[in-house]
Structure formats: structure tokens, C-alpha cells
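Example 3.2
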Amino acid sequence: MTLLDKLHAEIAGHGGWLPFDRFMALALYEPGLGYYAGGRRKFGLLPSEGSDFVTAPEMSPLFGRTLARPLAQALAESGCHEVMEFGAGSGALAAQLMTAFDELGVGPLRYRIVELSAELRERQRERLARWAGRVDWLDALPEQIEAVVIGNEVLDAMPVQLIAFDGQAWRERGVVSRGEGFAFEDRDSTLRPPVETGFVPGTVTEIHRQAEAFIHTLARRLKRGAAFFIDYGFPEAEYYHPQRHGGTLMCHQGHLADADPLVAVGDKDITAHINFTGIALAGQEAGLLVLGYTSQSNFLLNCGIADLLAGASLAERAMAHRLLAEHEMGELFKVIGFAPLNAGFDAVGFQRGDRSHRL
């Protein structure tokens, strides 16, 4: 069975209409068929390499070397000896962090990766063979976690629900079969955006129940440690601003972006920006303390990337500049940190430029 066959069968099994979050989950994660289950390369700097998009660790090793500092602080503050990464991609960040931890003398340390994709797990094992005795893999969230958690661009790949405003009411957008392909169809729904701000007819936006449920579950299981998530997104007021009437859903293939998830299904990534207010509230409601929230640029500068840049080559500086530049990743990408209630600390990454008050 192909992925398209699976999707058409799923639509038929749901009475001819499939909620978009289910469609997105199958398109990305269906074992043996979905985008992240396929063997093609996804992460890299150039389309000529056969990759679809670049993440910060592929862009510059200074990303991981800088992140090692706040993670080392969190390990020391919490008394933990384990780092847990969600969705480790190519393994680039894990390799950078382990190298930096060794240089910083952080240890003994265990590094655990929660990875749904068997294909990516194998790639990660190859890249991290040097630390074979200290790295292991999980395919599900442990019941109890005593670790410092890191997730880079993991929340944006979690399936979202789509809702559309027709001028009178919000309706949920789902997917129907149309010949051999697919089309959108809206149905009556009780789903609403978390704020009402004068939306214009034709507005389409996203609801992030799965990402928020993930944070809620993590909060209940994090007994000791901290958690940091890095992703592109906005506070709620910006996310659901009336001028953002087309939503944030995007697809990536060959380093090109488009907004149509119903074509080339399984051959491209599907993402949505993050509503960081919803993420913060999900953590707080389940007993976590928000350590801080700021831009990626502020976070990396607070953590000492300028010191690392001083000793870098011109080429390394040019690539690292993209991590900090406002028109690149520096401002669009944000960092949010959590710790268990009554176990907070003054996290170095948020010491200047904390924007928690904007959430």
C-alpha cells in the first residue's frame, strides 16, 4: 500500500472527511510511508545535497556548542545527569552537545533521544557512534523523567487542526478525496481560536492541541530537571492577529516553501508556527514554571556565542550570523524554558531580553 492509498482509505473510513491533524500525522509519520519514515535526506544546507530544509545545528556547530552552556547550568542546578532530546533529526545537535559537554567536563552524562522515525534513529546511531556507550534511543516518552530536556524544531512538526472563518462562524477544515488527489472541505465545529480579535471572512488558522498536550504530558512526567524548546512562532496576540489571516501552515521541499500540503504528499515536510502562549499555559497548568521566553538571538548571546565567534573562522562567523540575524533565524525563532514548580533557577539564556511578559 502506498501513502496515497493509505490516506484515501483513511478518508473513506472516516465517512469521506478526515480532520487535517490526522491527515498531517499520516503524511509525516505513518510507519514505512510517511515523510519522516522515508529514506531521503531531509536536513542539509543545500538542495543539491538532496535535502529539503536546514536547521540551526546543520547551519553552524556553534549552535550546539553555545546551547551546551545553558544545558550544563540546568544539569548542575537540578542535580541531573541526563539530557533528553526530542526529535533529534540528523543527530547534528546531539553530536555538538556531546562534544561540548566533554570539553566542558560535564559528566558522567547520559544522552537519550526520543525518536519516532526508525530511519532517523539509524542515521543518528551512525553519527553518534563515538558515544555509543552513553547514548540510547526511546520511541516513547518515559513515565518518569529526571533530565534536562531539549527540543529544537520539534513542536512545529506536531499535527495541527485547521479552522476557517466564513464571516459567520468558525468551521473545521478537513481533507476529502478528489479523484486520485485531495481537496479541503470545511465542516461545522465547536473549535475556536483562543482569542477573538476581529477576524475577517476567509481567515484560516491553526489550533495546536497536540503540541500543548505533549507539553502537558511532559510536565506531569518531569520530576526533576528542566526543558528548553526552540522553534519559530509568536505569542498568542501576534499569532492570531487579524492581519495573519492566512495562517502559518507551510511545506518544505528542496529548500523551497509552499502552502499546499495536499500535493506531493509524503515528499515534503509540513509545519506550522508555534503559539508560545498556548505552550506556556499548557506547562503552567500541569505544574511547570516558565523559566523564560526570548528570541533565539537573545538566548544565544546570553549564553556566550559572542565568545565562540571571536575564535571562529570567517566562514564559521558568516554561517553563525544567520542564527542571530533578525531577518534570518534570530528573531523568528524563540526559546522557552520550563522547570518543575519550586525548582526554578535564574537560567542564563533569559538573563537579558526575557519576553515572558508578552506571552
